[in-house]
Amino acid sequence: MAALGWLTPRRRSATARSVLAGEASAEAARKNQEATAPLKDAAEPEFPVLGDDKAAAFFDLDNTVMQGAAIFHFGRGLYKRKFFETRDLARFAWQQAWFRLAGVEDPEHMQEARDSALSIVKGHRVAELQTIGEEIYDEYMAERIWPGTRALAQAHLDAGQKVWLVTAAPVEIAGVIARRLGLTGALGTVAESVDGVYTGKLVGEPLHGPAKAEAVRALAAAEGLDLSRCAAYSDSHNDIPMLSLVGHPYAINPDTKLRKHARELDWRLRDYRTGRKAAKVGIPAAAGVGAVAGGTAAAIALSRRRR
Are 307 and 27 in contact (CB under 8 A)? Predict the structure, then answer.
């Protein structure tokens, strides 16, 4: 059986420094390979461009930067703090398992999750939820950040560019994640509050689909950015409007529709779920299958519980 040990999934124990070391080694290997390849294979200009203050990067969150959906992880943390009952947690867990297995945003599931979250936080203070968000990040989100996407964001930061999360998740949670990753900031869904207390309503609508593109457009105008020099990253075909705004769109862990669209338009592709390499790649980095394995386990556990 020892000979089959490589088939057994191993728990990742790499530190942040070891992850960076591994990614640096992979990048060095790629550059060495390019140096010995025909000139046409090494002719692509370096990106991101160092010192380009008219450029920035915009990253979707769910399944692009983080495995699964932030709002579901947030719900799990609120359950631990007795914000709601067990039946609500089962619904959150089922939706999260489905999302991780399918890798596609289901509008009905996402709407139900948002409605549940709004009803749960109604009457609570904004400051309280921000503090809890910090704790929930450490408990459920930190270990679910895709190292590959994290490396892409860091490349933009190292080039002196601003990096923003753009997500339908609550702006308070998005802000926590952006701070923890050392990013510039976050655009997210805004829940209405009066005198620092949540009312259970949204300001406008969730930051989803075309709304993301409008948010990016508005921020670019305010920041004096040239969108043709900016980059955007997402896993979902719902974000095609945002990806189409910029000069450097990237499909990260793409769903079927986005993968097809990206190939038709010759956009860069990168999939960190399986380690397979697309025709055009960004910065090499580690990959994992934890999302699929975890989602399968959750779905099986819930199915058994319901019998």
Answer: no
Q: Are 63 and 99 in contact (CB under 8 A)?
A: yes
How far apart CA 223 and CA 250 sit, in angstroms, is: 22
SS3 call for 241: helix
Q: How many CB atoms lie within 10 A of CB 258?
A: 24
DSSP state of 140: I
Query: Considering the entire predicted model, what is its pTM?
Result: 0.69
CB of 92 closer than 8 Å to CB of 116: yes
Q: Which residues partner with 3 through β-bridges?
A: none
- The residues carrying an active-site annotation are 60, 62
C-alpha 182/C-alpha 195 separation (Å) is 29
Cross-strand partners of 197: 125, 194
In this structure, what token pair is assigned to residue 184?
A: 């510039």
Convert the pLDDT of each residue in 266-289 to its tens digit.
Answer: 999 999 986 444 333 333 322 222
